[in-house]
Structure formats: C-alpha cells, structure tokens
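Please decode residue identities from the backbone states below.
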C-alpha cells in the first residue's frame, strides 16, 4: 500500500533558487531521450567510493534497483538480484507525481479550467453520498495537496491503510471516493489519501476524452523516449491515480530529470515551467513528526532542509531530485528505510561541482559492488529429509481459499519445480495451470526471459516435515512466504505477504 519540491521561496525556506539548478547550469542538454549517456563519476564531481557505499546501503535495505545521474549523465546503476536490468517496476505512490505532471499539462492545454475548480462540479452527473457544503468546496488543488478533508485512513506507516484496502475491494473506485464523508473542511490540514489522485485520473479521462495512459504516452512519455509502460486500471477502466504505474528505473530518472530541467525537454516545454516551480514552492506541512519539516504539494514530497524533493511510493519507489547538486536518482525496492540516510549518502557522493581527479581504485570498488549485488549468493541449504521423496509428484487438492488455488504439486527431484492449478478469476470455475522452477540451492530460481513469467521462487527444508517457500513477483516488488507442513496425506500451509497479511490453507493428496 501506499505510504505515502526543490525551489521553495528563498526567504521562507533557506534560499533555494527559483529554478532548478540543473536548468540554469546546462541549458543545451544533454537529453537522454534515446538512452542515458554514461560518465565516470569523478568526471561529474562524484566520488565512486561514496557511490559504492550507496550501493551497499541499497543491498542492506532491500532495494531492487538504483540509478544515479548528475548533470544529465548516468554515474551509477545497480540491479539487485533477482531483479535485473530491463524490467519494469510498480512504482506505487510515485505514480502520483506523474498524475500531477499530467494535470499541469491538461491545464496548459485548456482541458481543465484550473486548480480552483470544484471537484463536485466535474462529477455533476453522479449521485454522491454525504454531499454537504464542505464537500462542495473541495477543489482540484485540494486533491493535489492531500487536503481534501475526506474521511480517509491511510497512515504513512506500516499500520493498515484501511480506506485504501476498501477502495481496492470496491466495485466502483471513483464512486467510493466521492461518497466518503467529510472529516474536516477542505484545506484544513494534510491527510494522506490515495483516493484523491484517483479522482484526478478520472477527471483527466473525462476532460481529455482519452484513457490517461494514452494521454500520458502522447504528451509526457513519448517526448522523453519512454515506451515501456504498464498502468493498472480500476473496474471501470480508469487508470489508477494513487498507485499502479509500472516503469523501468531509468525512465523514472528521466521524469526526475524533466523536473530538474524546469519541465523542458530537447527545446520543448513538456510540462509548463510554472507548474514545475509550484512543486518547488510546496507549503503544506505534512506534520509527520515534530522534527521533520516536510512539506507536500502537487503530489510531491519536499524536504526543505535537505533541498530535495521526491515522488515517493510505498517500500521506497522514489524519484529524487536535488536541484542544487544537479542530481537525479531513481530507486525501487521492498523496504521503507529512513530518508535521512539516503540524503546523507547522496550528498556525500556529490563531492564537487567540478570534475574530480580520476580514482581507479574507487572506480574498481564501485564496479565490484555493482557486480556483487547483481549476483545472488546462495544461502546454506539443509539436506532434504526422507519425506521429500514421498511427497514429490503428489498432487494436493486444497480446500476453497481466498487465494483461488485449487491444486498444488511439488516436483523435488531433478530440476525442482512446482505446479499450481488456480481459478482464472474469483467466482469462476475455469482454471489455469502454472509451472515454475523452484530454487532448492538457497537461490531464487533463474528467470527464463522467453517465458514471460516474472515470478521467481526458492525453498528450504526448515524441519523434517516442513518446507518453507518464498516467491518474489519482480515487477510488483511483492513477496509471498509459505510454510508447508506435511502430516500423512495432508498438508497445512501458512502464508504471509510482504505487508504481513496472511492466512492458511489445507489440502490432501489425491494420488
């Protein structure tokens, strides 16, 4: 779930420039439309040894990928096994930053009147519950700033995002958000709400007459050379505004670089410059802690003391821009780690505005660390018990369950694998069979790129009758953990996902 700019007014927040520093320093480019141009870190004033420490930080904090650029040049890139280069990644709430850019584009094109337009007027054809004067006063800007006033529970912590879970389960996402009662008057204060950006994508679809993914592809992604896109849609076919966009990490960095350059790309103003500057001027206090002077605006996070701003997704899907350093980074992962440590490492790596002397030793260290994290190291594997031979090839029929799995078969000899027979959809009698390799050597099974299945798995015996299996959905950054306990002809399965949610299954051998 989702847990979750840098030109602030100079006198208010410490003297940041009124335009991104990179846009001032490099008016002629470079432009990574076709591909990022690589550079030795020291040529861009970056310390390779500090970048190696950043790569190590990623390994310790469950990053899947890391791209660091400075002055428009790629200076470091790491992919953490089993994730690999060339894969998209679900960027979770960093999707909101893209929705913000599209909102600015639509306003510039005259498809939206502006941010002061009342939201209810844009849904005048709908019957809306709990409609009062406060809800009628809610504007597009309130949705952009997370100050809608709607009653919504989605804490920026590991606590359950109750409203977001209900949204995902609802038959009509837009109606669910519109029908929410008001907790306070709009503009009163910050309250994180992924439903608001979903209303924005619904508004964009209405006002442009286009699927938001198509609108984004034409007016935002194509100019930047971004083509490998996937975007989830709600039951009515509306692109999910609060989450659900999938991008490659290099393309995430392009979006950050677009904002660093004031919305300009190859001489064209893709996002209006004044719209980008609004992000730098975010003024809504997030009030997450007394010590954190974090601001929010236009669906971006601002860190005034760090002179940084970010589009942030749960489990640290991040587009980071540090304008005074001319630095843009993008990262994906599976763990919420402290922002402060990330900022420190970035600042330590950006040693100078001028090129540094070549440092072959540090460069070799950085190359080794990038290679190390790309190569998964096997963990110690316990010997298979006698039970393994008896259960191999048996098909276990499972009692009805919320995962929709009907049958499970383990193949534990030769090349280990497993077959899952599952229902094609909730309530359907149609089934499908999926076969996946199973890593029994302490490593995730290797991907077959031709198969198109981006799920990898590994297993280990944790007792004489107990097999523990971990699945990774690479594009989703999701993890599933299964503990299978065998007793006679029966199997009991306990499962949890990366959010700690779980349940149990039972089954019996049919052969």
């Amino acid at each position: 779930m989702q847990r979750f700019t840098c030109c602030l007014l100079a006198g208010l927040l410490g003297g940041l420039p009124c335009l991104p520093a990179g846009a001032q320093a490099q008016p002629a480019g470079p432009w990574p439309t076709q591909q990022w141009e690589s550079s030795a870190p020291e040529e861009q004033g970056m310390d390779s040894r500090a970048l190696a420490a950043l790569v190590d930080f990623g390994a310790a904090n469950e990053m899947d990928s890391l791209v660091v650029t400075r002055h428009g040049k790629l200076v470091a890139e790491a992919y953490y096994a089993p994730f690999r280069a060339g894969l998209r990644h679900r960027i979770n709430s960093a999707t909101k930053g893209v929705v913000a850019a599209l909102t600015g584009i639509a306003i510039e094109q005259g498809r939206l009147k502006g941010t002061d337009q009342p939201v209810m007027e844009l849904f005048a054809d709908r019957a809306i519950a709990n409609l009062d004067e406060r809800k009628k006063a809610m504007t597009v800007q309130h949705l952009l700033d997370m100050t809608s006033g709607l009653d919504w529970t989605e804490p920026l912590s590991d606590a359950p995002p109750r409203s977001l879970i209900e949204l995902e389960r609802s038959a009509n996402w837009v109606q669910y958000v519109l029908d929410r009662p008001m907790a306070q008057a709009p503009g009163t204060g910050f309250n994180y709400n992924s439903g608001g950006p979903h209303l924005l994508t619904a508004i964009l679809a209405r006002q442009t007459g286009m699927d938001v993914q198509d609108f984004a592809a034409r007016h935002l992604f194509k100019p930047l050379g971004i083509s490998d896109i996937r975007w989830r849609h709600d039951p009515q076919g509306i692109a999910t505004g609060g989450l659900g966009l999938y991008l490659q990490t290099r393309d995430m960095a392009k979006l950050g670089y677009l904002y660093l350059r004031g919305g300009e790309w190859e001489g064209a103003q893709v996002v209006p410059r004044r719209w980008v500057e609004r992000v730098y001027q975010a003024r809504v206090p997030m009030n997450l802690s007394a010590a954190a002077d974090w601001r929010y605006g236009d669906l971006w996070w601002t860190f005034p003391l760090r002179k940084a701003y970010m589009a942030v997704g749960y489990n640290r899907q991040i587009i980071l821009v540090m304008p005074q350093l001319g630095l843009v980074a993008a990262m994906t992962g599976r763990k919420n780690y402290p922002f402060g440590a990330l900022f420190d490492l970035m600042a330590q790596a950006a040693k100078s505005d001028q090129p540094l002397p070549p440092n072959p030793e540090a460069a070799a260290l950085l190359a080794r660390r990038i290679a190390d994290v790309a190569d998964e190291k096997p963990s110690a594997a316990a010997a298979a018990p006698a039970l393994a031979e008896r259960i191999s090839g048996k098909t276990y029929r499972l009692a009805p369950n919320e995962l929709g799995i009907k049958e499970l078969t383990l193949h534990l000899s030769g090349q280990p694998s497993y077959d899952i027979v599952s229902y094609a959809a909730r309530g359907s009698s149609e089934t499908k069979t999926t076969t996946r390799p199973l890593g029994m050597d302490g490593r995730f099974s290797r991907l077959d790129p031709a198969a198109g299945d981006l799920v990898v798995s590994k297993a280990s015996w944790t007792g004489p009758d107990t097999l523990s299996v971990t699945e990774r959905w690479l594009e989703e950054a999701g993890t599933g953990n299964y503990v299978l306990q065998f007793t006679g002809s029966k199997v009991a399965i306990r499962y949890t996902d990366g959010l700690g949610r779980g349940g149990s299954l039972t089954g019996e051998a049919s052969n």
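Observation: The domain at 387-509 is CATH 2.40.128.20 (Lipocalin).
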